[in-house]
């Protein structure tokens, strides 16, 4: 009666394991890679096995085929490095493995709930699933787009539910190992802690954010929710805000908590140029348009959630 979570030691995946535990589900198999720092996300969580995907696709396939009575498959693990310059590795990690996991779930007729990405929209202004402008502009985005196309092309063949969620910018506990790929709420907080100043790109950047616990809740509900059928869905807050606004939320919260002296936010912000290597691969605008109402209801109140997250970081001295 096991549940499978890929990327289960990572940021979103460990929160998915936590969510399952909160629902009384402990028979969880985690597929991920060993990393001393990332493994800290598993402290306090309950699961029955951990498998290293780096053993290879065939080894993982053979392991999966031995599982008795799997209940659901949450595929969250991915190579999310937008600066990955090895297309072969990116496509293997994010496309070939995804196909294998999807076909396994179909062979067992269990729900396959997976993480796609809003990166497939690039900087298109219309970011709805049905009639949106898809314009991937890095290898990561193309790998996610490619698997979405695989699902769409094969949906009539699937006997199970296959639901992909295009994650927008996810923030929350458990991203400490992600370095430059961490959400800007955490990155801005660390900028203040380390340099007493936030480096803010001198271009307007507006992004749609969603709290990681809301992501896990939506994915859990997707297993049985009647509105979720085989297909692709947006998963964001449906309330885009600028990087400048996020910086001000972080600064104001740190002032309120007595971490930094009270001052005008501009005191703690330094405008910088966007690095050349990022300019053609960077999303300046994201918005989860056309999102299902029940998802938007779960994901509302992000400004308050960002403040609470910063407070949690302060208390934990992260």
Question: Largest beta sheet, briefly?
Answer: 7 strands, parallel
Q: Please give the CATH class of the largest domain.
A: Alpha Beta
Bin the strand percentage. Answer: 15-25%
CATH topology tier name of the largest domain: Rossmann fold
How many strands?
A: 13
| N-to-C CA distance | 36 Å
| Spatial strand sequence of the major β-sheet | 3-2-1-4-5-6-11
What is the assembly state of the chains in this entry?
A: single chain
At CATH's second level, what is the architecture of the largest domain? 3-Layer(aba) Sandwich
Structural class: alpha/beta
Series of secondary-structure elements, N-terminal to C-terminal: EHEEHEHEHEEHEEEHEEHEHHH
Number of helices: 10
Describe the structure.
It is a single chain. This protein has helices spanning 11-22, 57-65, 87-108, 139-154, 184-195, 212-222, 243-256, 276-279, 293-298, 302-316, and strands at 3-6, 28-32, 49-52, 72-75, 112-117, 162-167, 169-171, 198-201, 206-207, 209-211, 231-235, 241-242, 269-272. With 318 residues, the protein is α/β, with parallel strands linked by helices. It folds into two domains: 3-170 and 209-235, 3-Layer(aba) Sandwich (Rossmann fold), CATH 3.40.50.720; 178-208 and 240-285 and 301-316, UDP-galactose 4-epimerase, domain 1, CATH 3.90.25. It starts with a strand and ends with a helix. The model has no long low-confidence stretch (mean pLDDT 94).
């Amino acid at each position: 009666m096991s549940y499978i979570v890929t990327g289960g030691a990572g940021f979103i995946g460990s929160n998915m394991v936590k969510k399952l535990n909160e629902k009384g589900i402990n028979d969880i198999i985690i597929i991920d890679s060993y990393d001393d720092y990332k493994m800290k996300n598993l402290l306090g969580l309950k699961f029955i096995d951990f498998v290293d995907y780096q053993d290879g696709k065939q080894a993982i396939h053979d392991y999966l085929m031995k599982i008795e009575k799997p209940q659901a498959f949450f595929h969250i693990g991915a190579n999310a490095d937008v600066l990955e310059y090895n297309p072969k590795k990116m496509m293997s990690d994010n496309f070939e493995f995804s196909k294998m996991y999807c076909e396994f779930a179909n062979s067992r007729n269990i729900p396959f709930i997976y993480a796609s990405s809003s990166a497939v929209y690039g900087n298109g202004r219309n970011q709805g699933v049905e009639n949106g402008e898809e314009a991937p502009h890095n290898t990561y985005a193309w790998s996610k787009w490619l698997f979405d196309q695989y699902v769409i092309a094969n949906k009539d063949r699937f006997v199970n539910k296959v639901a992909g969620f295009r994650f927008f910018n996810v923030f929350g506990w458990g991203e400490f190992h992600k370095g430059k790929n961490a959400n800007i709420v955490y990155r801005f907080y660390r900028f203040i802690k380390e340099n007493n100043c936030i480096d803010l790109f001198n271009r307007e950047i507006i992004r749609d954010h969603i709290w990681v616990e809301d992501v896990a809740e939506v994915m859990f509900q997707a297993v049985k929710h009647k509105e979720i059928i085989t297909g692709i869905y947006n998963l964001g807050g449906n309330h885009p805000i600028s990087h400048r606004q996020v910086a001000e939320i972080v600064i104001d919260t740190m002032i309120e908590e007595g971490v930094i002296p009270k001052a005008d936010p501009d005191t703690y912000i330094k405008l910088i140029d966007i690095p050349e290597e990022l300019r053609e691969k960077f999303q300046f605008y994201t918005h989860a348009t056309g999102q299902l109402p029940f998802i938007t209801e779960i994901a509302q109140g992000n400004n308050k959630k960002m403040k609470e997250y910063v407070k949690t970081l302060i208390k934990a001295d992260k």
